[in-house]
Amino acid sequence: MSGLTIEVNVAPSYRADESNDAESRYVFSYTITVHNQSPHSVQLMARYWKITQGSGECQEVRGKGVVGQQPLIGPGQSFRYTSRAILQTPVGVMEGAYTLLDTSTQRAFEVAITPFRLAVPLQLH
């Protein structure tokens, strides 16, 4: 897919107010910004996540779009959303991919999401 440049930035955050150490429930939010640096509009059609707990246990999540949307992102535009992950361990890793549609050719392509760490800050755990 020549000429298509999509950048994905992730900002994870621990949600102490929603977590419970005694129940092994660790809630993290993550804000993702998808930057379309391409000359064409793209539509975010699907997501894939691989969530690895600190114990090594993996969970895979697939679905249409993100947060109930399949956003159209114009040239030079960005789409930002926040979602959550609930782990059973105080540390984990998420990675994945988005399936996007190049609206000029109607061809789908994937953009990898670099692994990012979810961790309870040391002073809180």
Summarize the structure.
With 125 residues, the protein is mainly beta. It has a single domain, classed as Immunoglobulin-like (Sandwich), CATH 2.60.40.1470.
Structure description:
The protein has strands at residues 6-14, 26-36, 42-53, 58-64, 72-73, 78-87, 91-102, 107-119. The model has no long low-confidence stretch (mean pLDDT 95). It is mostly beta strands and 125 residues long. It has a single domain, classed as Immunoglobulin-like. The chain starts with 5 loop residues before the first strand and ends in a 6-residue tail after the last strand. The strands form two sheets. Strands 3, 4, 5, 7 and 8 form a five-stranded antiparallel β-sheet that branches. It has a three-stranded antiparallel β-sheet with strand order 1-2-6, with no helix packed on it.
SSE pattern: EEEEEEEE
- Work out the radius of gyration: 16 Å
Give the helix tally.
0
Percent range of helical residues: under 10%
CATH fold type: Immunoglobulin-like
CATH architecture: Sandwich
- Give the low-confidence spans: none
CATH class identity: Mainly Beta
* Strand fraction: over 45%
Tell me the structural class. mainly beta
Shape: elongated
Distance between the termini: 45 Å
What's the CATH superfamily, by name?
ApaG domain
Total strand segments: 8
Task: Please tell me the total number of domains.
Answer: 1
Summed over residues and divided by their number, the pLDDT gives a mean of 95
Major sheet summary line: 5 strands, antiparallel
Protein name: Co2+/Mg2+ efflux protein ApaG
Domain ApaG: 1-125
GO biological process, one term: error-free translesion synthesis
Pfam families: DUF525
